Amino acid sequence: MKLKYLVIGSIIGLSGLTACEDQLNYQEYATLDKEYISQNYLNVGGLVTNIYTQLDADWGNYGGATLASACDEAEYVWSNSTVHDFYNGAWSASNPISSTWSKNYAAIQQCNLFLEEYLGLTFPELRLNSDYEAQMFRYNNYENEVRFLRAYFYFNLAREYGDVPLVTKVPSTDEVNSLTRTPVQEVFQFIIDECDAIVKKIPADYTKLGTNALPDGKPETARANRLAVLALKARTALYAASPLFNPEQTGDLWKKAAEANKAVIDSCAKYEYKLESYDKLWGAENYLAKEMIFLCRSSKVSNSFEGYNFPVGVEGGKSGNCPTQTLVDAYEMQSTGKLWNEDGSGYSENDPYADRDPRFALSIAKNGDEKWPSYNTAPLQIYYGGVNGEPLSGATPTGYYLKKYCDASINLTAASSSSKWHSWITFRLGEFYLNYAEAVAHYTGKVDQPLPGDQNPLTARQAVDIIRDRAKMPVLRDEVLNLDVFWKRYKNERMVELAFEGHRFWDVRRWKEGDVLKKITLMKITRNSNGTFNFKREERQRSWEDKMYLFPIPQSETVKNPNLGQNPGW
């Protein structure tokens, strides 16, 4: 069997991988068959590396727009992006927008091919050039890494489409065109079973293989390790328990989700992962943060994300994913721990950004901010008529610009243009405190009750407070002992902590709370003659139908294989 693929290096280079196609520097080869791939160790590594490059990273996959702009986190300023189809009702089976189906099944095909054709190869003439290469050869976990990757690609498919064909071998063309869909809970269970099967066969830390550390001693956070396997299992278990996929709210699924996410927390403690300063989550060296479990790493330096999102009116900035007032309103007041519209919050209409959760200033650029980005010498003027405001073409329609994931040190001026490495967060420790809090609260029905029999007990309230403490926010008040109140606070905390990391779009779907996407709030700012500002909220309607909980299977696929059927409403 022959496979046409792109070889981009050996497994030794995995720390430089990305899934951003516009950032990859592929070297394309002719059609390559088993004989060629089996010639040497590096060719096999090249195939595995190529599979890693299929991982998803949302650096602006919709013409510069991210999924944040397809939910209530942001609005994409430019109308030519397909992201607007998500909320103007223009997507359909014939215009599915997402390429997840074809992209992930192509990756799964590569995984299945590797597992069928390339296990057990030996290279008696192999000459390794260094102790490091010898260690990597000795400790390579290609089989288990590929099984992890295949499970990850299936997770992407299941959360988007629900029931999907589960294929674990290389099918013939006739078989492909007659496949039926596997129930989503069986797909989730397959992912969980795969993780259980490989977790003890895969290293916890690639920097400590054998007797020597890797040459630079830096973590290989782009290579699947034991923590990444546990993280995939934990996230899968949470989705499996969520209302979209567990309509009867079976308690046992919530218990499994709580146990799986607690296992990530406990294992992170064992292997010295920990929460650090929130601003270490992005920037050129975010892969070094002690919180990072698994990342999609860029293969070369770039500045395209900054170009998409630095403010209009700043040289090189084109604007793009603009945070909504809906998101800004989720940032509580720091001194009281209350939302802006709650009694006694301390919110001031005349100074709406004072005393806010510190994560706000780290994630979102507001009117008057200085040195954003670093080479910008003037305070941001986002008010109407300002240097960075409407009616300037491309100016933010929401009243804000994006900071999170943007590297402020990148320069986009013609005279001093610069680029840097980027890494997209796939799994980080902070997520799993929140996942656990959600799961254990649903399972026990209590906010202050840990998992029964847990050797290191942790309650839902304590897990959320750990995240809040890192952000220098006050602990949750006793009102959260009411489960309904806790659920409201939890969702708000999750929206703030994980903003722009690709969670919100999927969270509102798995919770079956899509109605929140029917409108967003914007902030319109005007400047008075005396230099003060007026702040006026404005609502914008968006389209939402319940069929949007799941994506339509592309019509191109259902034409080839009518057995696939179609998701409800499409």
Radius of gyration: 24 Å
Unreliable stretches: 1-31, 210-215
Overall form? globular
Total beta-strand segments:
12
Written account of the structure:
The protein is α+β, with helices and mostly antiparallel strands. Helices cover 34% and strands 8% of the residues. It contains 18 helices and twelve strands. The strands form six sheets. It has a two-stranded antiparallel ribbon. A two-stranded antiparallel sheet has the order 2-3. Strands 5-7 form a two-stranded antiparallel sheet. Strand 11 and strand 12 form a beta hairpin. It is globular. Residues 1-31 and 210-215 have low confidence and may be disordered.
Quick tags:
alpha+beta, two-stranded antiparallel ribbon, 18 helices, globular, disordered N terminus
Nutshell version of this structure?
The protein has 570 residues and is of the alpha+beta class. The chain is built from 18 helices and twelve strands.
Map the helices and strands.
Elements: E1 2-3, E2 6-7, E3 27-28, E4 32-33, H1 34-37, H2 41-52, E5 74-76, H3 85-88, H4 100-117, H5 131-138, H6 142-161, H7 173-176, H8 184-198, H9 226-241, H10 251-270, E6 292-297, H11 304-309, E7 321-323, H12 325-328, H13 358-363, E8 364-365, E9 401-402, E10 423-428, H14 429-444, H15 460-470, H16 483-497, H17 504-510, E11 519-527, E12 533-541, H18 555-560
Helix pairs in contact: 2-6, 4-6, 6-8, 6-9, 8-9, 9-10, 9-14, 10-14, 14-15, 14-16, 15-16
